[in-house]
Amino acid sequence: MRYHAPATFEEAVSIAAGASGVTRFLAGGTDVLVQLRSGLVTPDDLIDLKKIPGTGEITRLDNGGWRIGVAVSGAELGAHQALVADWPGVVEGMELVGSTQVQGRATLTGNLCNGSPAADSVPGLVAAGAMVTVQGPKGTCEIKVEEVPAGPGKTTLAAGEIITAITLPPRGKHGGDAYLRFIPRTEMDIAVVGCAVSLVRDGDRVVSARVSLGAVAPTVLLVEDCAKAIIGTTLDEAALAALTKAAEAAAKPISDKRGTKEFRIEVAGVLARRAARIAYERAGK
């Protein structure tokens, strides 16, 4: 195994593009190191991104949005009061990943690129309308977070392409978001269902919304019908009932040892309803 510690993303891309075997990137390492130690993956090239300037920084952009480096840990996200104030749902999703010790290393980008449909941090990013900057042999581009996962353990990134940062849009006034999940245990478990809601209010009325479901399909879902169910409403019981129905209709889970298909569908509706209420209350503050 060849270990690389590039000083720039250009160098990292060059190494990745020239690699002919199995390649893995190291930012937090909570997934990659477990795979290494368990023998699931033995990379020919391990590319450590942590020494690249900016990878460990959280930056407020001129437009009010946020740029989060690929090596920023969950613990660092939770300690950033201004980011938590703007996007509490995004942060609380990441804070559910693993233990306190894992939080010191785990990253948003790593959780996204692991490709798990049950990733706790991804629904919040999707609901927020987050973008990722992708750099590769053909240049740099911006893509939506929901376009990155391709299925369990897979992403749409081509050979040599690297996510260099995650960008959250400006929160704006009267906006709120929330993430909830269901797990059999009290902590340190994989989501049976997850749901994130981000919305904006004008007075008591919802004027825009995004709803994302996790662990109910091969990839995290952005459910437009859920958003349509609550936009233009005051999130009254009729709107919540329509939201619940839309979430249940969108869920296409499997049955496994953590829950049956029927149970997951029902829980998707329950969590959508609860997360929407929390996001609505946060938007009113």
Could you please describe the fold and organization of this structure?
Helix content is 34%, strand content 25%. With 285 residues, the chain is of the alpha+beta class.
How are the SSEs placed, and which strands pair?
Elements: E1 2-4, H1 9-18, E2 23-26, H2 32-38, E3 45-48, E4 58-60, E5 66-69, H3 74-79, H4 81-86, H5 88-94, H6 100-103, H7 108-113, H8 121-128, E6 131-136, E7 139-144, E8 149-151, E9 154-155, E10 162-168, E11 175-182, E12 193-202, E13 205-214, E14 221-222, H9 224-230, H10 237-250, H11 261-283
Parallel strand pairs: 1-3, 2-3
Antiparallel strand pairs: 4-5, 5-10, 6-7, 6-10, 8-9, 11-12, 12-13, 13-14
Helix pairs in contact: 5-8, 9-10, 10-11
Question: What is the string of helix and strand elements?
Answer: EHEHEEEHHHHHHEEEEEEEEEHHH
Please outline the major beta sheet. Answer: 5 strands, antiparallel
Rounded to an integer in angstroms, the radius of gyration calculated over CA atoms is 19 Å
Q: Helical percent range?
A: 25-40%
- Number of helical runs? 11
**Overall mean pLDDT:** 95
**Cα separation of the termini:** 52 Å
Strands, count: 14
Sequence of strands across the biggest β-sheet: 4-5-10-6-7
Secondary structure class reads alpha+beta
Unreliable residue stretches: none
- The amount of beta strand, in percent, is 25-35%
- What shape does the CA trace take? globular
Short description:
The chain is α+β, with helices and mostly antiparallel strands and 285 residues long.
Index terms:
285 residues, 5-stranded antiparallel β-sheet, 4-stranded antiparallel β-sheet, 11 helices, 25% strand
